[in-house]
């Protein structure tokens, strides 16, 4: 930040949706469902010099991610089965053609 930390009286971060906060350094003065904030001038000064480290998980997207992985796995399984079936048919046709040429 280029601002003097004495000029900032409150720092609030809002993620715009339900969020699970796993780790925040420094600890916020207050938290809400979708964000957190700082009112302590010492913490704001620490953030301006060292930065803010946080790990959060968006609650709404965790179910969507599971569905995406399930669909991707199902589609890959179908295409893999189709690929193996086509490969076996191709090998069988080539083998039959080769046997037919040998018998002539």
Task: Give a description of the structure.
With 104 residues, the protein is of the alpha+beta class. Helix content is 53%, strand content 22%. The chain has two helices and five strands; from the N terminus they run ββββαβα. A three-stranded antiparallel beta sheet has the order 1-4-3. A two-stranded antiparallel ribbon has the order 2-5. β3 (30-31) and β4 form a beta hairpin. The protein is rod-shaped and about 95 Å long.
Provide a concise account of the structure shown.
The protein is of the alpha+beta class and 104 residues long. Helix content is 53%, strand content 22%.
Write the layout of secondary structure elements.
Layout: E1 11-14, E2 19-25, E3 30-31, E4 35-38, H1 41-50, E5 53-58, H2 59-103
Features:
104 residues, alpha+beta, three-stranded antiparallel beta sheet, two-stranded antiparallel ribbon, 22% strand
């Amino acid at each position: 930040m280029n601002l003097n930390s004495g000029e900032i009286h409150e720092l609030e971060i809002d993620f715009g949706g339900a969020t699970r906060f796993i780790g925040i350094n420094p600890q916020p003065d207050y938290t809400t469902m979708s964000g957190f904030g700082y009112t302590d001038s010492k913490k704001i000064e620490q953030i301006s010099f060292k930065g803010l480290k946080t790990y959060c998980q968006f609650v709404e997207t965790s179910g969507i991610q599971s569905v995406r992985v399930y669909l991707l796995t199902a589609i890959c399984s179908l295409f893999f089965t189709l690929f193996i079936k086509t490969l076996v048919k191709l090998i069988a046709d080539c083998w039959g053609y080769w046997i037919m040429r040998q018998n002539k």
